[in-house]
Design a protein that fits this description.
Layout: H1 12-21, E1 39-41, E2 44-46, E3 51-52, H2 68-80, E4 84-91, E5 103-104, H3 110-128, E6 135-141, E7 148-149, E8 152-153, E9 156-157, E10 172-173, H4 176-196, E11 200-203
Parallel strand pairs: 3-4, 4-5, 4-6, 6-11, 9-10
Antiparallel strand pairs: 1-2, 7-8
The structure holds flavin mononucleotide.
């Protein structure tokens, strides 16, 4: 039988004690200094091995530009000291947004992304000095089955799924031409991300979104 219980450990001792009680072998190292070692990624030296995971805040403007809260969040992440910041999912086309406040990068709003990247890097320099050159990744996405248009569900799928699509009011099955165009949109958005100052892009292919084919 699988056993679950809520936990709220405040110290490593509490965690180790609980593991012992459960008869679990938990490798544990109190020395966190390996996290502070530099790392080479794609020819760039990243100041440490800590990373902020991509997490959508749903606080972008309707045109896809980062909002005030988005900008504040990334400044704060940078002030936290992580060497790598993985910016949240940003849509590559309007019809692939998960909600009207998801980030979306395009030719019209690239300047707002440029200033977000600049502000985030500057916050890191200000907090940790000129050598604290963070690695910035932008995650590119199309929400596929979970897309919304003007706050209405507007699923874009590659096939009908009798389990997931049972209650869908509308369902658009993307044809080969649309999929080819989508490929171009990813490439174009990756190019814009480069010009906005990101070091890399990540192609989101999980959580049932468009490239996670189901
Ligand atoms: C509010 C929220 C938004 C998230 N947005 C994204 C996202 O944009 N892209 C992604 O790959 N994962 C996203 N995730 C998943 C997280 O990056 C992370 O992988 C997940 O929360 C597991 O890590 P944890 O156990 O530390 O929470 C999100 C998670 C949360 C809670």
């Amino acid at each position: 039988m699988i056993y679950h219980e809520p936990f709220d450990y405040e110290t490593s001792e509490e965690l180790l004690k609980a593991a012992k009680k459960l008869n679990l072998e938990l490798p544990f190292q109190g020395d966190l200094s390996p996290l502070l070692r530099k790392l080479e990624i794609g020819g760039k030296t990243v100041p440490n091995r800590m990373a902020v995971q991509p997490m959508e805040g749903a606080d972008a403007y309707v045109n896809g530009s980062p909002g005030e809260l988005t900008l504040r969040r990334y400044r704060r992440y940078a002030e936290g000291g992580s060497g790598l910041i993985w910016f949240e999912a940003a849509a590559v086309v309007p019809e692939g947004r998960s909600n009207p406040h998801q980030l979306m990068l395009n030719n019209e709003n690239i300047e707002s992304f440029q200033s977000m990247v600049k502000d985030t890097r500057n916050a890191a320099y200000k907090a940790y000095g000129d050598s604290h050159d963070i690695f910035c990744v932008l995650q590119l996405t199309h929400s596929g089955r979970y897309s919304m248009l003007e706050a209405e569900a507007s699923p874009k799928v590659v096939m009908y799924n009798p389990y997931l699509d049972k209650s869908a009011k509308s369902l658009h099955i993307l044809d080969d031409k649309e999929l080819d165009e989508l490929q171009e949109s990813y490439i174009e958005t990756a190019r814009l991300a480069y010009h906005a100052g990101f070091d890399a892009v990540d192609i989101k292919s999980c959580n049932g979104y468009r490239l996670n084919v189901i």
